[in-house]
Amino acid sequence: MNDRVIDLTVVYATHDALRRDLAHLDRVTTRADRDPRQLPATAGWTLFKKALHAHHMAEDVALWPVLRRGLTGRPKDVALLEAMEAEHAAIGSLVQAVDATLADLEVDQLRLGVLADALVVGLAGHLKHEEDAALPLVPRALTAGQWDHFCRLHAQLIGLDGPLLLPWLLDGAAEATVERILSSLPASVRTSYTAQWAPAYTALDRWSPATRTL
Question: Taking the model in full, what pTM does it have?
């Protein structure tokens, strides 16, 4: 079906970056020396939410529905895509619940801990479920043009946050992954990334409220 190979590198890199932030989130919501009310004022929480929203919105709009049309007559695969959408909705509700709890002047730390743990476990489980079962369907059921449309929408949803979310994506990634993603971008973007975006991101103490600039 495809006239060229579909490259899923960015999706897997996004998943790895989300997992990295889940580990940070787990630490900042369970450490006795941290005030959980400071979490909304951190660049880390803001970037995590922006990246997660863009990634899931792009999948819900331009990946799962297109895959579903390509999987007509395969009810088990269609049910899997419905599960992906349901998991997205549950994760979005957990993020909203964490924010609502943090907005309370007297944060219920027990409730926050339960919600944060549910988010960490739920999102980690979803990412693995997607990688194990849904992503293998992409090269089999999508054309290269359809995949390109998904990638373009994902980039549009990131929009003006690109100067922070690109280094966020590549933070801690394997050298081969960094090279593969950067090589797919225009030369002007690569120059900006190296000269400005990556240094500015590195200077952020992402999980400290004192350095939030977003």
Answer: 0.92
